[in-house]
Design a protein that fits this description.
Number of helices: 10
Shape: rod-shaped
Structural class: alpha+beta
Order of helices and strands: HEEHEEHHHEHHEEHEEHHEE
Mean pLDDT: 79
CATH architecture of the largest domain: 2-Layer Sandwich
Distance between the termini: 74 Å
CATH superfamily of the largest domain: Histidine kinase-like ATPase, C-terminal domain
Strand content: 15-25%
Largest sheet: 5 strands, mixed
Helix content: 55-70%
Length: about 450
């Protein structure tokens, strides 16, 4: 047992359990003892008063001689029995006792409480008789005395057994109760030491709070593992996508330096460098926008807008691109899809979705763009007849820098859909995807509707 054992949570819980258990034993024992005491006192007092009534009748009918005769005729040994007759000034007129203790009790003040209180096995009864006299009877209840001694011995025995049960129960219950916490600490230590986020804490089939904590901890580990995995993949994608423009930029600069000075070649090299720099800056800017939107820190300059008008502008922007790709765009745009949004950001959303649909739809394909209101939402729905998305990739298309295998050959950074989701959710909306591999995809954006 280490020096810090008694400062542990388990030790404190065990101590509290022992104290509460023993306290319960003591309270229950005290209540039982008080109840027994009251019951025995009442029964003994009734017996004393019944005996006193017999002596009172003998005194009234035959005087002190009859009282003495009745006392002498008591059957069997008479330990702890005394009679005392006094006048109104408490002067003893008659007294008889089986022993000195009985005589002292009979002559004691009529009090059971206080410094001179009677022992529990003694009972005193008093009654007023003729000529303003008082007859007192003191009797000792021997069985009650034995019972009290046995009760005290039994109480100590029960207390000892209770202490043992409390300590054993505290050890067992505390160990079983804190087992999930112990497993949690052990797993955390192993994860910290090994760095393996794949470790999990064993859980039991229970619904108590500690087991729920363990389950939540496992869920957190799984989420952290997936986030770290996604971060590593994102870093790989960033490194891959940045390597190409930076390599081109360096190669163009080296080529311009190696060749003979030529103004035209220098201009071309600078233009290529600017183009590649813009590509890198665009990627970093988009990543920053996504992070800000997901963190709730994106500045949104909101005003009332017509979602249909923003979509028309985006379609006009990509009209030449769609014709060049041989893709036909069909529109169904309603007039009642009003939103309260940042015009520039929602235009980005529309442009990214339309560009994505054109990029993955083969020549001769078709894209349908619909804008309508649905209850409290304004909806943008873009459907295409493109390559579609595999089932295992649908949940990941919204992740930063994720690009499915079928899209690797297409230009892009894998940030468009991530930006769409982040911006829409920053506006209090939501996104939805339905797709079938080889049959096309449907992207839906829902934004809070503004009622004019």
């Amino acid at each position: 047992m280490g020096p810090h054992t008694w400062h542990s949570l388990g030790a404190r819980l065990a101590l509290w359990y022992v104290l509460v258990t023993l306290g319960s034993f003591l309270v229950a024992g005290a209540a039982f003892a008080l109840r027994m005491q009251a019951s025995m006192q009442q029964e003994g007092q009734r017996s004393a008063e019944s005996a006193l009534e017999r002596y009172r009748l003998a005194l009234e009918n035959g005087g002190t001689g009859a009282l003495q005769s009745l006392f002498d005729c008591s059957p069997g040994p008479r330990p702890g029995l005394a009679l005392r007759l006094t006048d109104e000034r408490d002067v003893e007129l008659f007294g008889v006792a089986s022993d000195d203790a009985s005589r002292r009790v009979a002559a004691a003040p009529n009090e059971r409480d206080g410094p001179g209180r009677l022992p529990l096995e003694w009972h005193v009864a008093r009654a007023e008789v003729s000529q303003r006299r008082t007859l007192a009877l003191a009797v000792r209840d021997e069985p009650a005395g034995h019972l009290w001694r046995e009760l005290r011995e039994t109480s100590w025995l029960i207390f000892g057994l209770g202490l043992g049960v409390a300590v054993f129960g505290a050890m067992v219950i505390t160990r079983r109760t804190l087992q999930p916490v112990t497993d949690l600490a052990r797993a955390t230590r192993q994860i910290v030491e090994s760095g393996d986020l794949g470790l999990r804490v064993e859980t039991r089939a229970s619904t108590d709070e500690l087991v729920q904590l363990t389950q939540l901890f496992n869920r957190m580990l799984a989420k952290n593992e997936s986030l770290v995995k996604a971060m590593r993949e994102s870093l790989d994608y960033v490194a891959h996508d940045l390597r190409t423009p930076l390599t081109r930029l360096r190669a163009g600069a080296e080529l311009a330096l190696r060749e003979a000075p030529d103004l035209e070649r220098g201009r071309d090299a600078l233009a290529a460098a600017i183009e590649e720099s813009d590509r890198v800056l665009g990627m970093l800017t988009t990543l920053t926008d996504i992070v800000e939107a997901e963190a709730g820190a994106m500045r949104l300059y909101r005003q009332a807008e017509d979602l249909g008008a923003l979509v028309r502008e985006a379609i006009e922007l990509y009209e030449f691109v769609s014709k060049e790709a041989g893709v036909n765009i069909v529109t169904h745009i309603g007039s009642d899809a009003k939103i309260f949004a940042d015009r520039r950001r929602i235009s980005q959303v529309c442009a990214n979705l339309i560009d994505n649909a054109i990029k993955y739809t083969a020549a001769g394909g078709r894209i349908e763009v619909a804008v309508f209101s649905d209850g409290s939402s304004s909806v943008l729905r873009i459907s295409d007849t493109g390559v579609g998305i595999a089932a295992e990739d649908r949940a990941r298309v919204w992740e930063r820098l994720f690009r499915a295998d079928r899209s690797r050959g297409e230009p892009g950074l894998g940030l468009g859909l991530s930006l769409v989701k982040a911006v829409v959710e920053a506006h209090g909306g939501g996104v939805k995807l339905e797709s079938e591999l080889g049959a096309g995809s449907m992207f839906e954006v829902r934004l809070p509707r503004v009622f004019a």
